[in-house]
Amino acid sequence: MSTATPDKPSGAVTVLITRRVKAGHEAAFEQASADMTAAASAFPGYLGGQLVRPDAEGSGDDPMLYHMVFAFDTAEHLQGWQQSPTRSLGLAAIAPHIEGQTLRQVSGLGHWFAEPVGPKQAPPPRWKVAVVTWLGIFPTVYAMFLLLGPLLAPWPLLPRVMLVTALVVLIMTWLVAPQLTKLLKPWLYPAVPGNAAR
Fold it and tell me: Which of 34, 91, 132, 160 has an alpha carbon 20 to 30 Å from 197's alpha carbon atom?
């Protein structure tokens, strides 16, 4: 679980949960998930969530695998939700409808530009972070519209935005941003003369 020290404020935290649903339990699982999402939305810092069904574009090949993506504005607010009796009740309602292990991944936007291993270096200036973030988000969003635009055209605006933004966050966090930071590492973290000789 992602945690933050009290003297260091955390950024937005995105959670991806993958569950395998029992055959014939799809409707009950989706209802229980919707109830849990509604409950989470009442908690401080909740930014939104989206249930990605197996038949959704980009959800995977397994016909019984569901993905849930949601976000809180800080790790502290996420922890408040995770430790709440409300969440425990929601998990209890979902449990009869799933099988196998539940997979959970947590990532914050701060992880996109984690400092490289090695001599202590200052984090990159905000304008460089903004440039690299735009370099990643622009083509990712463009690709999402090209790939999913026709499929999502009949959808209402809010579900379209929720799905596209959830996919962009996932792709940025686990694919695009790590590659960009690796590629642009010399620019983001220029060598400090004093460290070169160490």
Answer: 132
Tokens of 88: 């425990």
Q: Which amino acid is at 60?
A: G
DSSP lists the bridge partners of residue 52 as 67
pLDDT, tens only, 3-62? 333 333 446 788 888 899 999 999 999 999 999 999 999 999 888 888 888 765 444 456
Domain that holds residue 174: 112-188
Q: Find out whether 18 and 66 touch, Cβ atoms under 8 Å.
A: yes
Q: How far from the centroid of its chain's Cα atoms is residue 110's Cα?
A: 12
Strands of the 98-108 sheet, one edge to the other? 46-52, 65-72, 13-21, 98-108
Which helix (H) or strand (E) element contains residue 178? helix 177-183
At 117 the three-state DSSP class reads coil
What are the pLDDT digits (tens) for 81-90? 999 999 999 9
**85, 131: one domain:** no
Please tell me the distance from the alpha carbon of residue 162 to that of residue 50, in angstroms, as a whole number.
6
Query: What is the DSSP annotation of 80-114?
Result: HHHTSHHHHHHHHHHGGGEEEEEEEEEEEGGGGGP
Tell me the backbone φ, ψ of residue 155, rounded to 5 degrees: -70, 150
Q: Are residues 89 and 54 in the same domain?
A: yes
| CATH number of the domain to which 77 belongs | 3.30.70.100
Helix H or strand E encompassing 14 = strand 13-21
Structure tokens, 2? 């992602």
